[in-house]
Amino acid sequence: MTTTAGYDQDVIAWANEQARLLRTGQFDRLDIEHLAEEIEDVGKSEQRELASRMAVLLAHLLKWQFQPARPSRSWDATIRVQRDGIARRLQRTPSLRQSLDDPDWWRDAWDDALARAIEETGLSDFPDQCPWRVAEILDPNWKPD
């Protein structure tokens, strides 16, 4: 088994060594604990990316609804880009769809969206909970009234 010092000193060199050991069948030398952590982190990274994109999307949808006299082409572009990015993430990693059914995940995404919208608009009278359905949020042709 490789030492944890390699992992702690240079994670890239460690990862390359772990890949080499896997490819050459030297399984007894693998740093199993750190490999497991890194694999779990890949999934967490995908979830963070989805949550971040959703928060940006929701913040722009809030701005669209609560500042109807100010919609801009950049808001429209951001909404489109985030929807496209979310769709690609969900297509490449279908298990991420589970997040869309998780109330805690939505709470975090909504809280992040609220913080963004408040900071960007100076407004604070937004709904405590997301007023839209997932299908609406992800629909490329939908925007709130």
Structure overview:
This protein has 145 residues and is mainly α. The protein has two domains: 1-30; 43-138, no CATH class. It has helices at 4-9, 11-23, 32-66, 73-92, 103-121, 134-138. Helix 3 crosses helix 5. The mean pLDDT is 92.
Task: Describe the structure using short key phrases.
2 domains; mainly alpha; 0% strand; 145 residues; 6 helices; elongated
Helix share of residues?
55-70%
Number of helices: 6
**Unreliable sequence segments:** none
Q: What is the number of domains? A: 2
> What's the mean pLDDT score?
92
Count of β-strands: 0
Could you give the order of the helices and strands? HHHHHH
Separation, N- and C-terminal Cα atoms: 60 Å
Strand content: under 5%
Q: Shape, please?
A: elongated
Counting helices, strands and paired strands, the structural category is mainly alpha
Please compute the radius of gyration using only Cα atoms.
Answer: 20 Å
Summarize the main sheet: none
